[in-house]
Amino acid sequence: MPPREGPYGLLAEFNTPSDLVRAAQQARLDGWRRMDCYTPYPVEEAAEAIGFHHNKVPLLTLIGGLMGLAAMFGMETWVSVWAYPLNIAGRPTYSWPAFIVPAYEWTILFAGLSAAFGMLALNGLPALYHPLFNASNFRDGATTDKFFLCLEALDPKFNLAEARDYLMTFQPVSVVEVDY
Amino acid sequence: MASGELKEKTELEAGLDPDTGEYRVIAPGQTFRSVTEKITRIVLTPDTALGWFAIFSVGGALATMLLVAVTWLFLKGTGIWAVTQPVAWGFAIINFVWWIGIGHAGTLISAILLLFKQGWRNSINRFAEAMTIFAVVCAGLFPLIHIGRPWLGYWLLPYPNTMNVWPQFRSPLLWDVFAVSTYATISVVFWFIGMVPDFGTMRDRAKSPLAQYAYGLASLGWRGSARHWMRYETASLLLAGLATPLVLSVHTVISFDFAVAVLPGWHTTIFPPYFVAGAIYSGFAMVLTLAIPLRKFYHLEGLVTDRHIDNMGKVMLATGFIVAYGYGMEVFMAWYSASHWEAFMMWNRMFGPMGWAYWVLITCNLAIPLTTLWSRKLRTSIPFMFFISIVVNTGMWFERFVIVVTSLYRDFLPSSWGTYRATKWDYMIYVGTLGLFTSLFLLFVRFLPMIPMSEIRMMLPAAKITPKKAAEAAD
Asked: Is residue A99 part of a domain?
């Protein structure tokens, strides 16, 4: 559990994605780890700059897809061979080619749901509250046209005054203290 | 004369990007804020245009008619329709296939064009996806009301029950249940996930507390973190990669409903690709039918540009030729199969009592679009493209009519021949779904951001990371 008192972090606002990426890269080089960038659209360079390269969404999707495949193919086989065998024009009860179609659909269904909900779960969403929304300039810009770098108080290097001075060296539009 | 030509030339050039020689995807001069303002204002304004109410009342009236017709259907049974022997599949199946096909273009635009990195799709993918979902809603209605006792519709699903009965997994009709339900689910999820960041923008731009609250809930607390964005992008790409084989499988499975039967006119291997191409053909026509009035009404010409109209015309030209190949192959196989029944079916389809439907289809799907869509001038003529979109939608409806009815009404045994004449209830339900579709679409346009803002921002020149500064930072 993160501490629920004191500052959450310091939020620097930039006008262009280039400024943000430059600041984030430098902060990472200077040893900052607990930080995040906030952008109104995906900026791959920003994620690279804070050292975020891999995510687990593809793995979850693969697992989900395989589960869907196994579940449907298994059910079809069980139903057709054991639970309710039917003679359909003399075909074998285990007519696996016909089972492929629903199994294929469920592979996609489970994989898709795993990708979507797995992404949300890994992101910690839905979240009804986040301290960043306390920053007055965050809501005006972060989802429209501004680019933010947040140094979080959980970082061992974090000291309010020093971190503020440090962020000022990147010449941001503003540096705002974010409270819980 | 000369000055007229000159004026035309400069107007044409204004729409062209000097770097690529192509039509611009987004008109010049847009910024992050201007794009955001333009798209959010449509939704967040307290004033609803009078025109919106006018169209909504028409759509709502037709949807009410659908309600009346379906209520009567539930009271009296499917006997109020024209379906009987030998034409046991009528309007319900025709409309089902037609609506599902329309939906396919939305998935094509949102998924396949994303995988192909076609940046121009960004402006139109949101409302194309919305179109998909509403088309699937209309489509899904038909099999449900056609099963006769719709309150027992859940019998289609495999579940343990006291009757000890399970579905028969070797039937394409059951495959349909899984294909269409998966398609509906994945389309809704993909559409919603795509809107989450835009809901965040709406929440932050909304003035009224109710709108802030509603969009805030829908945004799931989205805050645009770089880590979130990367997972989001991966998930979007994966969903697109999954939706692509899905959309191809859905119409393939639907074509199996026909192709697995031994009826001349249905029993053919060309059906899966021909159905999919036809679906995309009619779907793009429907996207044009919706996009052209929308961009005019909401002044979105800067975001949905002539380039989009032009490209959609090209896709229609390509898929139209695949469809033409399908028609040609049907005729060829009728002769080449040396089957008396196949040959008669094709002769009857062209020159029998319902031959007019075949020629309407040929005129609307081949003769008009495939001769004119070659011309860039016509492809960028907005009234002409609107006209073409209506023509193709009509043609594709007739294609389904021809496949279903003209194969069934005169089959092997002349003593069992019959005819098919739709009743007023058939027409009311069909036109009613058009009203339902229109109403749902208007609600979408009024309450949800119809153009994906985050994806548009990515395409603006300001989104470029300057390499010089990045290089400095690396030192």
From this structure: yes
In this structure, is residue A15 part of a structural domain? yes
Distance of CA B228 to the CA centre of its chain: 30
Boundary of a domain, candidates A122, A143, A158: A122
Q: Are B433 and B99 in contact (CB under 8 A)?
A: yes
| CA–CA dist B36, B30 (Å, integer) | 10
A50 and A73 co-located in one domain: no
pLDDT classification of B20: cutoffs 50, 70, 90: low
Is the confidence at residue B31, as pLDDT, over 90? Answer: no
- In the stretch 112-171 of chain A, residues with CB closer than 8 A to chain B read 112-113, 115-116, 118-120, 122-123, 125-130, 132-133, 138-140, 142-145
Residue A150 lies in a domain: yes
Residue A94 placed within a domain: yes
Residues A45 and A61 in one domain: no
Token pair in block for residue A86 = 């039917």
Q: Is there a single domain that holds both residue A16 and residue A41?
A: yes
HSE (CB half, 13 Å, CA atoms) of B320?
Answer: 28
Determine the angle formed by the axes of helices B424-447 and B122-146, rounding to 10 degrees: 150
Q: Is the pLDDT of residue A107 over 90?
A: yes
Inter-chain touch B186–A108, beta carbons under 8 Å: yes
Cβ contact, residue pair A133, B223, below 8 Å: yes
The per-residue pLDDT for range B410-446, each reduced to its tens digit, is: 888 888 898 889 999 999 999 999 999 999 999 998 8
Instruction: Give the residue from A14, A16, A41 with the most B CB atoms within 10 Å of its CB, the best one to mutate.
Output: A41
> Alpha carbon B290 to chain centroid distance?
10
pTM for the model: 0.88
Same domain assignment for residues A142 and A153: yes
Residues A161 and A140 reside in one and the same domain: yes
Q: What is the pLDDT of residue B5?
A: 47
Residues A18 and A34 in one domain: yes
For residue A64, the one-letter residue type is G
Number of domains in chain A: 2
What residues make up the domain containing A96?
57-122
Residue B228 is predicted with a pLDDT of 92
How many A/B residue pairs have CB atoms within 8 Å? 217
CATH number at residue A16: 3.30.70
Q: Do B170 and A91 touch (CB under 8 A)?
A: yes
- Contact residues, chain B, for A133 at CB < 8 Å: 223
| Residue A164 shares a structural domain with residue A117 | no
Helical pair B122-146 and B271-297, crossing angle rounded to 10 deg: 120
* The pLDDT value given to residue A34: 87
